[in-house]
Specification:
single chain
Length: about 625
């Protein structure tokens, strides 16, 4: 595995002048050229959802103009001004900061003082208005009263600012041909306060030679105007758009669909040491991202941080297990890496669908019965389901049984159902492309991946992390073992117990706090001939007439060599067991004393219930023995 280089990708905008791994420089160059030659005053609105890279883009623009002595640049972070201040105070602080920055360029101290005093008088009056209102005025109201009741004063201030900008443009020494004012993080403050800021900016700074570059999400404007226009509908949508168009003369949408996601992700993965020179397939990356989390850079950084944590966790686990009796190897093939990347994307975008893989890692085995366990047939209660399902089955996306199971499961989840085609395409990409040459190993390969991704799951249920095997299958499970496994998957198992092995003739769980010490405990279900526990091994012939053997293994050497302790634990288990009272025994398993019980191999439900009960009652008993 590649060495971990840098742990954690910081969620910060791309610094000015830094390398452009998203390939958005062409858009920055176009905006730079537009700002350079555009008429003024003008306002450019950089639109995009939170985390889409707006600040990184305007950093790029700022860096370009910072090299030019004839451009005055002012940067305002509206979020910082809103900290530890009331909404109305933060609003006026932002406007005052812009004026102060402009006045820094004025050599006429008399005019500078006059403008400062005039602005201070206006804003002090506005704050008094807010202070006298019951429970205080909100910024939107203060802005409205500022603009309406003091319009002549606002006009006077705007005239003074115009004279200032014209003067610094025409002066002989160090003239500024343009003033560019950046207002960032408007979408991080209360929407109606953001709208109030936009209104004041329009009224106060409608000044020649000034260019405003605003980082804003249109949806924030919509929310901020709901008090004025009501909820947005098809009938009143034009009112929202008209307000936005009045403020913004050039709207620019962040081109997330054009980001070079493959290059961006590979660069981040190299930075963390997850990959070396051999990059992940960029086509796979783009498709996986588009089907799941989308191209939002913030979401991608979270994803890469999850990968970093998982690889550190896996390294530590391998180091701890290297001195045990088990053989441990690290397999970091390109296929495994892209699958880990894929499953983490699924985990972040659709946690409910991710949890289905925990129940059955081989999604190609999902069928009508699997779907029914999830939906309880609720999809059939919706009169529209039958028609939509019939249409879907005629498409390539849902012409296989496992795809139809996905459709049914997603149908009852109104948040997920709009993305059902992307979800189906995601799994098809794994089956038909990433694992096209070894489809028969889908289940065991994903089971191994799921073990690693469980540590970053945000599932809060008891089943959140309880069933991801630590080892991939090397043998197909016997039918009896498979039946017991399915019973276990339908049960509520304390998520402190993690599935370690599911293959051939056995299933094994380990307590997640397992360490080399008193808490080193394995719980196993093994198909063996009745009462065969000595030696542990059993022939293929004996398995045909086998029983289910449930074993608890205490791995600490002090316990192994202390029969009194093991006898005491066995006695306590027999006292506390409601299913198998007084039936647990002690016998040799691979040369060591183990607690065990035999269950009829055909009684799968009893075997599963007995197994879960043993885990639940034995661990507290052993903890008391410490």
């Amino acid at each position: 595995m590649a060495n971990i280089k840098n742990v954690g990708i910081v969620d910060e905008p791309v610094a000015p002048g830094s390398s452009d791994s998203l390939d958005i420089s062409i858009h920055a160059k176009a905006l730079i050229q537009f700002i350079t030659i555009s008429q003024t005053p003008i306002t450019v609105g950089i639109q995009g959802e939170w985390g889409s890279g707006k600040t990184s883009l305007i950093n790029n623009i700022y860096h370009h103009f910072d090299k030019q002595n004839n451009i005055k640049q002012i940067w305002i972070n509206s979020w910082e001004f809103s900290l530890l201040a009331s909404p109305e105070e933060s609003l006026l602080k932002i406007i005052s900061a812009i004026i102060d920055e402009l006045l820094e360029a004025d050599k006429n101290t008399t005019r500078r003082d006059k403008i400062q005093k005039g602005a201070k008088k206006i804003f002090s009056g506005a704050l008094r208005i807010g202070a006298h209102a019951a429970l205080g005025k909100e910024a939107a109201t203060v802005a409205s009263e500022l603009v309406s009741s003091g319009s002549s004063t606002i006009a006077s201030l705007r005239k003074q600012l115009t004279e200032l900008v014209v003067e610094i443009q025409n002066r002989a020494s160090n003239p500024y041909q343009k003033v560019i004012i950046y207002v960032d993080d408007l979408d991080r403050i209360e929407p109606k306060n953001a709208v109030a800021i936009l209104e004041l900016l329009k009224n106060i700074f409608n000044v020649p030679n000034c260019v405003f570059v605003l980082a804003i999400d249109y949806q924030v404007v919509v929310k901020g105007l709901e008090e004025k226009f009501g909820k947005q509908t098809a009938e009143n949508e034009w009112e929202f758009r008209a307000f936005f168009d009045k403020i913004i003369q050039l709207p620019f949408m962040m081109p997330m669909g054009q980001y070079n996601i493959g290059k961006y992700v590979n660069n981040l993965l190299k930075e963390t040491g997850f990959i070396d020179e051999e990059e992940l397939d960029e086509d796979y990356i783009r498709q996986i991202i588009s089907y799941t989390i989308g191209g939002n850079p913030r979401s991608i950084k979270r994803l890469v941080n999850s990968i970093s944590l998982i690889k550190i966790f896996s390294n530590i686990k391998l180091e701890e297990e290297n001195d045990t009796d088990e053989e441990t190897t690290s397999n970091d093939s390109s296929q495994e890496k892209i699958l880990l990347f894929s499953i983490l994307c699924l985990q972040i975008a659709y946690p409910n669908i991710y949890s289905l893989l925990i129940n059955e890692p081989d999604f190609t085995k999902w069928d009508n019965n699997f779907a029914f366990k999830i939906t309880k047939g609720d999809e059939d209660k919706d009169t529209s389901f039958a028609k939509e399902f019939d249409v879907a089955k005629k498409t390539e996306d849902f012409n296989e049984e496992w795809e139809q199971a996905i459709f049914k499961i997603c149908f009852i989840n109104k948040r997920v159902f709009p993305k059902v085609f992307q979800i189906s395409s995601f799994f098809s990409l794994i089956k038909d492309d990433i694992m096209s040459e070894n489809k028969e190993l889908i289940g065991e390969t994903l089971a191994k991946i799921l073990t690693q991704t469980s540590v970053t799951s945000v599932e809060s249920t008891d089943k959140g992390q309880n069933s991801s095997p630590l080892k991939a299958q090397t043998r197909a499970p016997l039918s009896a073992i498979e039946s017991v496994y399915k019973e276990l998957m339908g049960m509520q198992i304390n998520n402190d117990f993690l599935l370690r092995v599911y293959e051939g003739d056995w299933i094994a769980y380990k307590h997640k706090y397992n360490k080399r010490g008193i808490t080193s405990i394995d719980y196993q279900i093994v198909a063996r001939e009745k009462d065969v526990i000595e030696g542990g091994a059993a022939s293929t012939a004996s398995r045909k007439n086998s029983k289910i053997l449930i074993i608890m293994l205490i791995g600490n050497k002090k316990w192994i060599n202390d029969p009194n302790r093991i006898n005491h634990v066995c006695e306590e288990i027999n006292k506390n067991s409601k299913i198998n009272n007084s039936k647990y025994k002690i016998g040799k398993w691979y040369g060591r004393d183990r607690i065990f019980i035999n269950i009829d191999i055909n009684d799968h439900e009893n075997a599963a219930n007995s197994f879960v009960e043993l885990m639940e009652i034995s661990f507290p008993i052993i903890e008391k023995e410490r």
